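Allow me, if you will, to draw on your knowledge of protein folds for a short while. I have a record of one protein: its chain in single-letter code and its fold written as discrete structure tokens. I should value your view on which stretches of the chain appear to form regular backbone elements. Thank you for your consideration; the sequence and its tokens are set out here:
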Amino acid sequence: MRKALAGLVLAAFAFVIPAVAQEKPPEPDAYRTEDYRAPVPATLAGVRVLTTAEAEAIWWAKAGVFVDVMPRAPKPPNLPAGTVWRDQPRLNIPGSIWLPDTGYGKLAASTEDYLKRGLVRATKGNSATLVVVYCMADCWMSWNAAKRIRTYGYSNVAWYPEGTDGWERAGLELAVSQPESRTVEETSSPR
């Protein structure tokens, strides 16, 4: 009787575990415009999805450019006068270009221009260069940005959905990064 019960329990877990592992949302047609820190789809049409091992191999081979789209924490608007504001350091994959705030679902024209200019600098104007886009795990910013970059005519776009979280879990080095400079600073929201 115990063996039969144990067999039923194991069978039940075998049925449940794959269902939990597959809890990825479907790929939407449009950009995600809210709840950016949530489970992401397993796919992105026209874009290669990378595992950490694949991203690491590309990084070691210097076979592509890495683009971090993690948003930059804004300066709180209600800081008391005289308060010193220091940006939170961003640790990203060494050698990456950091283009913060470029993964929102809707971008201001100046932010979209910032993304385009950053890509041109990173790829040296070659739209066939492999562009690896990332942020953090369960972050729609990188999904949105990779989708958007494809619309700019870049033919070799890869999305690394585990981002810096997956990179760090694998014991790989992260480096302090500074955002790519903007030629025109925005005074309003980057979205």
Summary: Confidence is low (pLDDT under 50) at residues 1-20, 185-191. The first strand starts at residue 48 and ends at 49. The radius of gyration is 20 Å.
